[in-house]
Amino acid sequence: MSKRKQLLSQTIEHIDITRHNVVPLVDAMRHMAYSARDLARAAEIYDRMLGDKECGVILCLAGSLVSAGLKQVFVDMVRNRMVDAVVSTGANIVDQDFFEALGFRHYIASERLKAGLDDDQLREAHIDRIYDTLIDEDELRICDDTTRQIADGLAPRPYSSREFIREMGAYLAEHGKTKDSIVLAAYEEEVPIFCPAFSDCSAGFGLVAHQHARGDQPKVSIDGVKDFYELTQLKIHNPTTGIFMLGGGVPKNFTQDIVVAAEILGEDPPMHKYAVQVTVADVRDGALSSSTLKEASSWGKVDTTFEQMVYSEATLAVPLIVGYAYHKGTWKKRKAKGWTRLLEPAPAAVG
């Protein structure tokens, strides 16, 4: 076995929350203290979102979550009506989920590699590292080029990231190697995905190549304002909302801001009724990723009745919070919002 194949031999396996009933464990944590009690309350709030028939649930993803083994959790959330829209970094959706849907995988790095002792050797072997996870750079370039091919096949005009990701879902419906994909599940279940910093990922390389090849000719571009407008329209159409945020950054701010954006458009929307954030960011540095949900209330974005910060790394907290809600079964009575249909133009009349 070559050194390269040896390094890329042990795959990340995605946790399956449907196989592990964590309800008794989380219920027991409710009577503990510190982060355990916070997590139990967050799980109850998320389950409460699912039980509120008026509530539209928005999932926010920041950080390398799919590559870390949480992909199946998000797929199950989409397919089981546990989320109505996704707002994410481009890396989770394109470099990681779409990448795996093309038939590629992420791999476990050894303790030595995790320590950063051999990054120069990884570079020579065309292997990229995300902490303790490895990716084949040559396969990632195929992912880049696939997004270029998708762009080349579209009518040249500005698209929201949601529109482009929907085209990616259509591509996977025909060419994908697995059904276990967030992009594909969202396409099939009519759950919109937004990546407000879409160019900051593998799709960005594909779109750069597309625009370079087109030169002065009409080309596909991504309209970030259209993203903001579309998500704001969802808030206006469905005033009661809950947000489940993993990490912070652009997805967090983008989603919280739609309350203010709706006000600017002349509406009087309520703040997000429910909010849960899982983060390890330190509130003392003033960054948005660590700003508390109570702080967001001062901006008129998040109500404080049902909000909970959970200071935990996502791979620990998410299977417990989502697993709790899954096995409680509240989602079984929930109807899909089908928000993609709200954002697609009506077909032109015939005749």
What are the main properties of this structure?
six-stranded parallel sheet; 17 helices; 351 residues; Deoxyhypusine Synthase; alpha/beta
Description:
By secondary structure, this protein is of the alpha/beta class. The chain has a single domain (16-107, 124-333), classed as Deoxyhypusine synthase (Deoxyhypusine Synthase), CATH 3.40.910. 49% of the residues lie in helices and 14% in strands. The chain contains 17 helices and eleven strands. It has helices at 3-7, 23-29, 34-51, 66-79, 90-101, 111-114, 119-124, 137-152, 161-175, 182-189, 202-214, 224-237, 249-256, 258-264, 293-298, 314-328, 339-343; strands at residues 56-61, 85-88, 107-108, 127-130, 133-136, 158-159, 193-194, 221-222, 241-246, 272-279, 302-311. The strands form three sheets. It has a six-stranded parallel sheet, sandwiched between helices. Strands 3-5-4 form a three-stranded antiparallel sheet. Helix 15 links the parallel strand 10 (272-279) and strand 11. The chain is globular and about 55 Å long. The N and C termini lie far apart (65 Å). The model is unreliable at 347-351 (pLDDT under 50).
Task: Summarize the SSE layout with pairings.
Blueprint: H1 3-7, H2 23-29, H3 34-51, E1 56-61, H4 66-79, E2 85-88, H5 90-101, E3 107-108, H6 111-114, H7 119-124, E4 127-130, E5 133-136, H8 137-152, E6 158-159, H9 161-175, H10 182-189, E7 193-194, H11 202-214, E8 221-222, H12 224-237, E9 241-246, H13 249-256, H14 258-264, E10 272-279, H15 293-298, E11 302-311, H16 314-328, H17 339-343
Parallel strand pairs: 1-2, 1-9, 2-7, 6-8, 9-10, 10-11
Antiparallel strand pairs: 3-5, 4-5
Helix pairs in contact: 2-3, 3-16, 4-10, 4-16, 5-8, 8-11, 9-10, 12-14
